[in-house]
Design goal:
The chain contains eight helices and ten strands. By secondary structure, the protein is of the alpha/beta class. It has two domains: 115 residues, Nucleotidyltransferase, domain 5; 152 residues, Nucleotidyltransferase, domain 5. The strands form two sheets. The protein has a five-stranded mixed beta sheet with strand order 3-2-1-4-5. Helix 7 links the parallel strand 9 and strand 10. Helix 2 crosses helix 8, helix 3 runs parallel beside helix 5 and helix 6 crosses helix 7. It is globular and about 75 Å long.
């Protein structure tokens, strides 16, 4: 039996997942997330780690491997670190075994990852850091429009005459939104337009990595934005050579932490097997 923890440090949120792996069966023991809000991410990494241990009623010495991902390489108590595209790929497979691509949409960028049935990364591509297709951009727009982030998805789905934002630069896109407000464009139509603009860029990413069919699991902080998911489905419905089903999961935000924990458990078991073989020789 192996107990492994995964800690994913993102731009705005830190997530932790704790797993038990025994005889090939993966059991999710606990999960926890916390918003950074201008606090020290390394200190918060300890907070989320302690929280999952307490929830699972385990001690630090019970954990065989602590894997980090994202910006977590400097966490002082980690055992090993994995690239985030690798962990999101593995997390996508855990959440939906039929996933053949992951679409990680975080605070600063979007990333499309082509994967096989084991979660191995075959290809990937990401948006530029200044692109308007990000969680931070949506957060800024919500603040300007005077709405809560939790309202974005439902309001977007109410839009009937969306105004698409054309600029890929977040600063210029925000200027577009200000102009829309001055012209009396409704909040639902502004938000739906933004989502359709983001969806078009994300669809291009999927096409660029060779994703043409199968399930695409949306991961990251915007995975539960119903307006964005709907916009992705709408955009893809117009492309004949892409037979893709967009999927999301209630735990999609934990995909990186899930993948880190499971890859950590796999690495620990491989090292343990190698040590046993060495001693036997």
């Amino acid at each position: 039996m192996t107990i492994a923890a995964g800690i994913d440090i993102g731009t705005s949120t830190i997530k932790a997942a704790l797993f038990k792996v025994e005889n090939g069966e993966e059991t999710w023991l606990s999960r926890y997330l916390i918003r950074i809000r201008q606090r020290d991410p390394l200190e918060l990494a300890r907070v989320v780690y302690d929280a999952v241990l307490e929830d699972a009623k385990l001690r630090p010495e019970d954990v065989d491997y602590v894997a980090t991902t994202g910006e977590g390489e400097s966490v002082p108590f980690h055992t090993g670190h994995f690239y985030s595209m690798t962990t999101h790929a593995r997390g996508a497979i855990y959440l939906n075994a039929d996933s053949r691509a992951a679409l990680d949409i975080g605070a600063l960028h979007g990333r499309a990852i082509l994967i096989d049935e084991r979660g191995k990364v075959l290809s990937y591509k990401m948006t530029s850091q200044c692109a308007s297709g990000s969680g931070q951009f949506l957060e800024n727009i919500a603040r300007y429009l005077g709405i809560a982030q939790e309202e974005i998805g439902s309001l977007s789905c109410q839009g009937k005459a969306p105004e698409v934002v054309s600029s890929i630069c977040a600063v210029l896109a925000e200027t577009d939104v200000i102009n829309m407000v001055s012209r009396g464009i409704s909040t639902p139509n502004i938000l739906k337009g933004i989502h359709l603009s983001m969806a078009a860029r994300l669809t291009k990413l999927l096409k660029s990595i060779g994703a043409r069919e199968g399930d695409v699991m949306v991961t990251g902080g915007l995975a539960l934005d119903g307006g964005l998911v709907a916009a992705l489905e709408e955009d893809l419905s117009h492309i004949k050579d892409m037979k893709i089903a967009i999927r999301s999961h209630a735990d999609s935000i934990y995909a990186g932490a899930i993948g880190a924990a499971l890859w950590g458990a796999f690495r620990f078991e491989k090292l343990a097997a190698a040590n046993r073989a060495s001693r036997a020789a």
